[in-house]
Write a structure and sequence with these properties.
Elements: E1 5-12, E2 19-26, H1 28-53, H2 60-75, E3 79-85, E4 91-98, H3 112-122, E5 127-129, E6 147-154, E7 160-168, H4 174-217, E8 222-230, E9 236-244, H5 250-259, H6 263-277, E10 286-290, H7 293-296, H8 301-306, E11 313-318, H9 326-334, E12 340-347, H10 351-360, E13 364-367, H11 369-372, H12 379-395, E14 398-402, H13 407-416, E15 420-422, H14 432-437
Parallel strand pairs: 9-10, 10-11, 11-12, 12-13, 13-14, 14-15
Antiparallel strand pairs: 1-2, 3-4, 3-7, 5-6, 6-7, 8-9, 8-15
Length: about 450
C-alpha cells in the first residue's frame, strides 16, 4: 500500500568520508487532515450556496420540503426529515426526502415514546444516534439500520419546536454522519428562520380556533333583538335577531371564524341562541335571522334547526354575501318549509343586491341605511326609493327601511310608500327581557 511521504537528506559534519542521513516522514495523517479540512471547506461553501437559494414556501409543508431537499443535496444523506413537536406532547413528520428507490431509514410514525425521546435529547443540543441507539421503545424496525445526525430547531425566542435529521442507511458510516453534524446544526438554524413565521401563524390560528370553539361550545355570546315596526301605527310586527360578542364587533368575529373554517358552526350557534331566546317574544311577530349562503346550502343542520318552529322566520341574506349558485339557493330555501321566507338585506348598497332580488324573489327587501340616512332632504335618495317601491309593489314583496333615526326620515318613507321601518327611532337592539319590559 502506497503512502504519502516526505524525504529529507541531511549531511553529517565529519572529518571522514561524506555521510548523509535520510529522514522519511509519513504524511498520511497530515494529508488526511488536509483532506478533511478541504472537505469541510467545500461543505461550508455548499451550505452557503444552499442557504442563499433557500426561501420560505407558501405553506409550512412546502417550506419543510425545501429544507429537506437542500440538506440532502448538501450532505449527501440517504434520508432527511423535519419533525415538529406538537403542544400535546406528540410529534409529527412535517417533511422528508430520501434517495429514490430506498426505503426510508427512519419511520414516519412517531410514537409517544419516540417523541419524548427526541424532546429530551434536544435539551443538550445536536447529537448523533448510531444503529444500536436508535432501537427506541415504540420505534419501527427501520430505525435500527440508520446512523443519524440530529439538530434541534428553535424559534427566535428559544422555544424548541422540532428537530432536523439527516440519516445514512450505509454500514460503517459513523464517521461520515458525525461529520454532518455541524452542517445539520447550521441548517437547523436556517430552518428555524424559515419555519418560525409559519409556526407563529399556526400558533395564532390554533389560539383563534380554541377561542372560537369555546364561544361556540359554551355559547359565549348574547342574542339581542331589534323591533321592526309599522311606521304609521308603531306596531311591532317582527324582530331582527343580532348577536353580540362582548366588545368585539360581530363582523370581526364572523370573519375570524370563516378564516379558520368555523363560520358555519358559529352561525348555527348564534341561530340556536337567537331562536331559544326569542321563543318568548310575541307569537304573532316574525323573527328575522341573518344567514349566509354557505349555511343555507350546506347539509341538513339548518333544516333540522327550523323544523319545529311555529313562528314565521325570515332569513336575511346581505348584499355583501356573494352567491355563486342561485338555483342551488332557491332549492335550499324551498326545502326549509312554508314557515321560512327570504329577505335581501342592504338593498341599494350595490349591484349584487339587485341581482339577489331578481334571482331569489324574496318576500322582504330591506333598504340599506345609506338610502335612508337624510332621505327627507335628498331628492336623489327619494327618487331611488320611489323606484324600489314601485318594483316591490310589482313583485309583491314587503319593504323595510333600515337605520331610521329621525321622525322626518320615517315620515318621508311613509310618503314614498315604505310601510315598515327599523332603527334607533323605534328601538335599539336589546335582550328579550328588556324588550318585554318596554311597552310596544
Amino acid at each position: 500500500m502506497s503512502r504519502p511521504v516526505e524525504l529529507s537528506i541531511v549531511e553529517l559534519n565529519s572529518d571522514g568520508p561524506e555521510r548523509f542521513t535520510a529522514f522519511i516522514r509519513d504524511l498520511t495523517r497530515e494529508r488526511d487532515t488536509e483532506a478533511q479540512l478541504d472537505l469541510a471547506r467545500r461543505e461550508r461553501r455548499s451550505l452557503a450556496e444552499s442557504v442563499g437559494r433557500m426561501q420560505p414556501g407558501a405553506t409550512l409543508e412546502q417550506t419543510g420540503d425545501g429544507i429537506c431537499a437542500a440538506v440532502r443535496s448538501s450532505v449527501g444523506a440517504d434520508y432527511v426529515a423535519v419533525i415538529l413537536f406538537e403542544p400535546s406532547g406528540s410529534a409529527r413528520t412535517l417533511a422528508s426526502t430520501t434517495v429514490e428507490g430506498l426505503t426510508p431509514p427512519i419511520s414516519h410514525e412517531t410514537s409517544p415514546e419516540r417523541a419524548a425521546h427526541l424532546m429530551e435529547r434536544t435539551r443538550a443540543g445536536p447529537w448523533i444516534e448510531l444503529p444500536s441507539e436508535t432501537a427506541l421503545p415504540g420505534a419501527e424496525g427501520t430505525h435500527r439500520s440508520a446512523s443519524t445526525a440530529y439538530a434541534p430547531i428553535r424559534t427566535d425566542d428559544g422555544m424548541t419546536v422540532g428537530v432536523l435529521l439527516a440519516a445514512s442507511n450505509r454500514a460503517g458510516d459513523r464517521g461520515r454522519v458525525t461529520g454532518w453534524l455541524p452542517l445539520v446544526s447550521d441548517f437547523a438554524g436556517v430552518a428555524s428562520a424559515l419555519l418560525t413565521p409559519h409556526l407563529r401563524a399556526g400558533r395564532v390560528a390554533a389560539g383563534e380556533r380554541n377561542d372560537l370553539e369555546l364561544v361556540i361550545s359554551e355559547r359565549r355570546l348574547v342574542s339581542v333583538f331589534q323591533p321592526i315596526v309599522d311606521i304609521e301605527s308603531r306596531q311591532v310586527t317582527g324582530y331582527e335577531a343580532l348577536t353580540r360578542f362582548g366588545e368585539e364587533p360581530p363582523s370581526v368575529v364572523f370573519a375570524r371564524a370563516a378564516a379558520i373554517g368555523l363560520g358555519v358552526e358559529l352561525e348555527l350557534a348564534c341561530l340556536r341562541s337567537s331562536m331559544e331566546a326569542g321563543a318568548t317574544l310575541p307569537a304573532a311577530s316574525w323573527l328575522s335571522l341573518n344567514v349566509s349562503p354557505e349555511l343555507l346550502t350546506t347539509g341538513t343542520a339548518l333544516r333540522e334547526l327550523v323544523a319545529d318552529s311555529e313562528r314565521k322566520l325570515i332569513f336575511e341574506i346581505t348584499e355583501r354575501m356573494p352567491i355563486i349558485d342561485y338555483e342551488g339557493m332557491r332549492s335550499a330555501i324551498e326545502t326549509l318549509g312554508p314557515s321560512v321566507q327570504l329577505a335581501i338585506d342592504d338593498a341599494g348598497a350595490g349591484y349584487a343586491s339587485l341581482r339577489h332580488i331578481i334571482e331569489l324573489r324574496p318576500s322582504v327587501v330591506k333598504l340599506d341605511i345609506g338610502l335612508i340616512r337624510g332621505i327627507d332632504v335628498d331628492p336623489i335618495r327619494q327618487a331611488m326609493v320611489a323606484g324600489i317601491v314601485h318594483f316591490a309593489n310589482e313583485i309583491g314583496c314587503t319593504l323595510v327601511g333600515e337605520g331610521v333615526e329621525t321622525i322626518e326620515e320615517a315620515e318621508k318613507l311613509t310618503d314614498l310608500g315604505v310601510r315598515m321601518g327599523q332603527g334607533y327611532l323605534f328601538a335599539r337592539p336589546a335582550p328579550v327581557q328588556e324588550l318585554l319590559a318596554t311597552p310596544q
